[in-house]
């Protein structure tokens, strides 16, 4: 029995999660896999009613009682400071020490790429974003609040352990997945302390992986190169904030945020958190126009990391066929509703 904790969250998170769980159940049944989903109402509504994002004991239960956690999206205009998102999303990433944010960049069909003359072979790499440190740790403070002399400090935390484990993971990932190269990206020309550490650790680790080509790019040059020549990349490893920004850029090259998936992982401790790259897109919430493919491809990633590779491949094929046959939402030029896309994908899954 594979147990999945499902947190649909806020806004379009609800619609795309319903869609992805339909495909998940159909795919599991097609391959005779026993999957049990338990749904949790963590999100803005519950937070506004109770003041609680992630209840006491939830972290431990999600860690110990489930094989995977599936999250739709969080974010609600009524909670401007995203306090519930900090508790739930960052709470799970940090609390479960999910230091790898794995974000595939894969073009499923040429028609989806806004770049001229790009083939599916040109866009197939993975961004490994550090997921437990950097500017996301919430260390800092405000001094002389509300005065003309106000000072706001937001620390960028980089530890040797944290930097080394994600860089080492990138090389191990490249080796085990027959990827030829690793590119490490930072801003060490300006961030002379935090990102100097990234430089030094990268130089130390890369010599242990002589079978993998590796080089460094400053993050501004990385953004440019991703657009100019995406075919050069296999594995990109970078810090938390740069990984966030770069993966929205990468999403557009694949067809938009409506198709970009991600996994938050710790290879040592097991349970992963799987979520689309996109957010709750409040302006599209409840209209049935959200593209569920990112959420469906997130389910594919979940099956892959649960070692059900044939299920993952079947979902990817079904998604590709739906795209080619125009069975897509309006952001991809189609006219189907969110749930109709889920039905179309599910119909194209064969065990
Ligand atoms: P967003 O990803 O929610 O939406 C940005 C735009 O991308 C949308 O307006 C829409 O044009 C497009 N888009 C996104 N998902 C789509 C889909 N499935 N189908 C079609 N189009 C889609 O980002 P935002 O507007 O910056 O943020 C909205 C809220 O979501 C904020 O509260 C933000 O903090 C939160 N957020 C949460 C997550 C998460 O839970 N993992 C990720 C990003 C943003
Ligand atoms: C993402 C999101 C989150 C992040 C936000 C909502 C905290 O943008 O998963 O990409 O910045 O990591
Ligand atoms: Mn983001």
Characterise the protein shown here:
The chain has 2 domains: 1-97 and 269-351, Isopropylmalate Dehydrogenase (3-Layer(aba) Sandwich), CATH 3.40.718.10; 113-254, Isopropylmalate Dehydrogenase. The chain is 40% helix and 19% strand. It has 11 helices and 12 strands. The strands form 2 sheets. A 10-stranded mixed beta sheet has the order 2-1-3-12-11-4-5-10-8-9, with helices on both faces. Strands 6-7 form a two-stranded antiparallel ribbon. Helix 1 runs parallel beside helix 11. It starts with a strand and ends with a helix. The structure holds nicotinamide-adenine-dinucleotide, 3-isopropylmalic acid and manganese (II) ion. 3-isopropylmalic acid is lined by residues 85, 89, 244, 277, 279.
SSE map:
Elements: E1 2-9, H1 12-30, E2 35-39, H2 44-50, H3 58-65, E3 68-73, H4 83-95, E4 100-106, E5 124-130, E6 140-143, E7 151-154, H5 160-176, E8 181-186, H6 194-206, E9 213-218, H7 219-228, E10 235-238, H8 240-254, E11 261-265, E12 272-276, H9 293-305, H10 309-324, H11 338-347
Parallel strand pairs: 1-2, 1-3, 3-12, 5-10, 8-9, 8-10
Antiparallel strand pairs: 4-5, 4-11, 6-7, 11-12
Helix pairs in contact: 1-9, 1-11, 5-6, 7-8, 9-10, 10-11
Nicotinamide-adenine-dinucleotide binds at residues 12, 16, 73-75, 82, 89, 257-258, 275, 278-283, 290-291, 294, 331.
Question: Which keywords apply here?
Answer:
about 350 residues; alpha/beta; Isopropylmalate Dehydrogenase; 10-stranded mixed beta sheet; two-stranded antiparallel ribbon; 12 strands; about 40% helix; globular; binds nicotinamide-adenine-dinucleotide; binds 3-isopropylmalic acid; binds manganese (II) ion
